[in-house]
Amino acid sequence: MSQLKTIQDEDLPSWLPRLAAHKGPRFLQIADALQAAVADGFLRPGDRLPPQRQLAAQLEVDLTTVTRAYDEARRRNLLEGRGARGTYVAAPKVELTAVLDLSMNTPPPPDGVDFDDMLKQGLSQVLMRADNASLMTYHLGGGSDADRKAGARWLEPMFGQLDAGQLVVCPGAQAAIAALILALTAPGDVILAEPATYPGLRAAAAQFGRQVLAVEADRHGMLPEKLEEACRRHKPGLVYLNPTLQNPTAVTVPERRRKELAAIAQRCNVRIVEDDPYWLLADAPPPPIAALAPDQVLYISTLSKCLTPGLRVAFVLVRDPQERERFLAALRSFALMAAPLTAALATQWILDGSADGLLAGVCKEARLRHRMARDILAGRYSGAGDGLHVWLELPAYWHSAQLARAADNEGIAVTPAEAFATGGAFVNAIRISLGSIQDRGRLQAGLQRLSDLLARRPEPFSAAVV
């Protein structure tokens, strides 16, 4: 006779049914019984549970089984430990904020990718193969040789074979942009960008005393004739472009326009910083401008937007050796290096194929979410079907800042056009990010709530008096 069958009902806690050999792992049976007892009110917040050894004896199972059951119940937020006083039923966690965040551009969690396992396996391989002392010390050369080779491998879809020595490994694209501004411009210099552009550019330029001016754009990106006119008038230090799934407009500049912009930069002897975080997320994107005009363009590719923000790693292609040294010197002045452990993990994932698998999952999930946005937002959706965000032009009765405030009152966070404005003609729009809400059902609810809000006219303003 099984040990389980010898247990008497009166020996068991009132909330726990008898275990059965055919109902799966015993520790899960115990955890499930705990969860059911809490849901049914047999156990209430603050109730003290039996000590683990006592419960193990009552159930005639080993202590490890009960320990695993309590750990699983803690993972489900059912229990809390109070030191020597024992283990108690936890108070339910209250969701203090129900905000549905459509404001942060992050990659969506891909279906079918066990990220926890991927992280554990990757770190295990890093620690097994790397010199652990090197992971905990300074790296002054813009990344290790292995990291730069991994960067060259990551950029192969854009450029084919690259000299890894021309790459610099940075702690994210924002650090790269700031260092390029420091290295290649002087205080008071002008940087040219599109009328709506990445806010991090403006933030870095303002800190360093540079001025960002807008160059008119159309539905294909920056206008070549307007760029040439601005170059001759302002003698800019840099031109900043984000030509693939541009943030925030989601415009992808076609190849012909890219060639025209590069030719103007060459004629006017001005460098282009090509910030290209979304190229690998795009469906059949044109070649980077840096591939069309290699001597004119400094190219940034970050892993944060196509894999995960936790990998604070960006690869910067700087072909000119003197510019590369100036860039490294500028980078070291405020961000000495990418964290070696994080860079080593990125390198491991790139070289063992894990990064490609994660990228494919992110692309698939992003396209599914774009289809959801297209269905819910109907005629208002104007995205390309890929990437992380949608640029939504608003009906005339809504102003972007007003809509953002109204959305916030509805528990939805969106980003108004003002956050991206560098000047020029104002576009009445908001950016909707599709990756920051992990659960698809919650994303669907947020998009539907936003669609309903857009269909309503704004309520007249009234101030509360207290």
UniProtKB/TrEMBL annotation:
Keyword field: Aminotransferase, DNA-binding, Pyridoxal phosphate, Transcription, Transcription regulation, Transferase
Family under the similarity heading: In the C-terminal section; belongs to the class-I pyridoxal-phosphate-dependent aminotransferase family.
Pfam family name, one: Aminotran_1_2
SUPFAM superfamilies hit by this protein: PLP-dependent transferases (SSF53383), Winged helix' DNA-binding domain (SSF46785)
Domain HTH gntR-type positions: 24-92
Domain of life: Bacteria
Phylogenetic classification of the source organism: Bacteria, Pseudomonadati, Pseudomonadota, Betaproteobacteria, Burkholderiales
InterPro entries: Aminotransferase_I/II_large (IPR004839), HTH_trans_reg/aminotransferase (IPR051446), PyrdxlP-dep_Trfase (IPR015424), PyrdxlP-dep_Trfase_major (IPR015421), Tscrpt_reg_HTH_GntR (IPR000524), WH-like_DNA-bd_sf (IPR036388), WH_DNA-bd_sf (IPR036390)
Protein name: PLP-dependent aminotransferase family protein
The organism of origin for this protein: Massilia suwonensis
SMART domains: HTH_GNTR
Molecular function via GO: transaminase activity
